[in-house]
TrEMBL record:
Pfam family, one: Acetyltransf_1
InterPro entries membership: Acyl_CoA_acyltransferase, GNAT_dom
Species annotation: Saccharothrix mutabilis subsp. mutabilis
All residue ranges annotated as the N-acetyltransferase domain in the record: 153-292
Designated name of the protein: N-acetyltransferase domain-containing protein
Length: 292
């Protein structure tokens, strides 16, 4: 008798987080649509290992991880799948059930959003359940096969001693940032941080003026920038461009094939800054949202 192999959703414990990170790393292939990256889990890790594990969901069949999701806030699930199961009907049906039924412990009732790669079958199915397209985001990509231009300013690779300064520049870059030195240390203890570089750009007076974190997914794979910002008192002087060039160069040194980033299309300053550092916009993507 043949029995159907059920898809099982679970929340990893702290020790199981690496499996999700490794799966996400494996799934980063050049040319794939924008998708959840190991660096996204690495950045979330600032909230601690327990909080990160609690925010992750995995879906597996026969022991194999097919999909990984990150609850990036209470009402947003960012999810991606192994490349070969993007159109797998059983997986997509199961995801729809888990995302639409609050009892499954993924998303609550009411207004919620899902980010998934544009080629995922889930994208075709959720609109049948009343989900609608959300605000447009612009993914940008910089190819790393050619040498990266010199940023023209002093770039510092930040270690634990300089974490307070990096945290201060991030707080001065993002209006609602709650980032602290403690969060930096929590993040740096996570396994994804082994493949990350934390950079600061300095101006001619040696003020720390812009910050970026880059996350490699391994040689020959796309790397991610998350987050990136210029101190609000130092904008409009090319420091954003400089720190993005430094980010691209750091990823290139780690063997990344390209550098990726995604920002709301409404953040015209960010899009312009990435473009000025050689990133090329790709077609806009949108979350799917279930209205309240
Ligand atoms: C986006 C941000 C990094 C720009 O930093 P910056 O140091 O002022 O940028 P630069 O001076 O290097 O500008 C780079 C290019 O972008 C353009 N630009 C920067 N801000 C702009 C804006 N608000 N509107 C239009 N163009 C803008 C500049 O004119 C420049 O263009 P050019 O190279 O063609 O001359 C900064 O505004 C910031 O930190 N914002 C908040 C954090 C954020 O949104 N980060 C990105 C999240 S994904």
């Amino acid at each position: 008798m043949i029995t159907a192999v059920a898809i099982v959703m679970s929340t990893p414990d702290v020790n199981g987080l690496d499996e999700a990170v490794d799966a996400l790393g494996e799934w980063q292939v050049e040319g794939a649509p924008m998708q959840l990256h190991p660096g996204d889990l690495g950045w979330y890790r600032r909230f601690g290992a327990e909080a990160t594990a609690a925010a992750v969901r995995t879906w597996r069949r026969d022991g194999r991880v097919l999909a990984v999701g990150l609850l990036d806030g209470p009402d947003l699930l960012r999810v991606t799948t192994a490349p070969d199961v993007r159109r797998d009907a059983e997986l997509a049906d199961r995801l729809v059930e888990d995302l639409t039924d609050a009892g499954r412990g993924v998303l609550p009732d009411g207004r919620v959003s899902v980010e998934a790669p544009v080629d995922a079958l889930l994208q075709d199915l959720l609109p049948d359940h009343g989900w609608v397209a959300g605000e447009p985001w612009t993914p940008l990509r910089r190819d790393l096969s050619a040498p990266v231009e010199d940023p023209g300013v002093r770039i510092e690779v930040v270690g634990p001693e300089r974490a307070p300064l990096w945290a201060a520049v991030i707080r001065a870059s993002f209006d609602r940032s709650t980032f602290t030195e403690q969060r930096w240390h929590a993040m740096a203890q996570g396994s994804p941080y082994r493949d990350a570089r934390c950079l600061l750009a300095h101006d001619t007076r040696d003020n720390a003026v812009a910050a970026v974190l880059v996350w490699s997914a391994g040689p020959g794979k796309p790397g991610l920038l998350e987050p990136m910002g210029t101190h609000r008192d130092h904008r409009g002087h090319g420091h954003g461009k400089a720190v993005n060039l430094a980010a691209a160069a750091a990823l290139q040194r780690m063997g990344s094939s390209s550098a990726l980033v995604c920002t709301p299309s409404s953040n015209v300053g960010a899009v312009a800054t990435y473009r000025s550092a050689g990133f090329r916009p790709r077609p806009e993507v949108r979350d799917l949202t279930r209205p309240a």
